[in-house]
Design brief:
Length: 133
């Protein structure tokens, strides 16, 4: 599940907004990126609610970055549009919280948990500015 279509569209939108000199509305972004407008509008609103974008109303309204690209991590973007941190596997965060009550028998959980930790760290360190380079 790591990179969903919503996460991909969010990153593409932010790249365009980074290069824009004025706020852009969802219709313009949708057209420019060939993304369904209603889907993109939800993504943009999610990012605005999480403080990644500023939303401006009115005739010249639209969306603009709320922070510098170097201050927006991929983990923040993906978490904003997914409603939770991205996961590589569907597993409990601890052996004790295994929904199948088989945590103590799971021999692969330590590996998967370590992998998830490394991916979380990587996404937290990777910024929008890094993607722009």
């Amino acid at each position: 599940m790591l990179i969903t279509r919503a996460s991909e569209y969010a990153i593409l939108s932010l790249i365009v907004l980074t290069k824009a000199s004025t706020p852009m509305d969802s219709e313009t972004l949708s057209s420019q990126l060939s993304i369904p407008k209603s889907f993109l509008a939800k993504i943009l609103q999610s990012m605005a609610k999480q403080g990644l974008l500023k939303s401006y109303k009115g005739v010249n309204g639209g969306f603009a970055l709320a922070r510098e690209p170097k201050d927006i991590s991929m983990l923040q973007i993906m978490s904003a549009v997914e409603g939770k941190a991205p996961k590589v596997f569907d597993c409990a965060p601890s052996l004790e919280s295994c929904p199948l009550d088989k945590g103590s028998l799971c021999s692969i959980w330590p590996f998967l948990n370590k992998l998830q930790g490394k991916i979380d760290s990587f996404l937290a360190d990777l910024t929008l500015a890094d993607v722009l380079e």
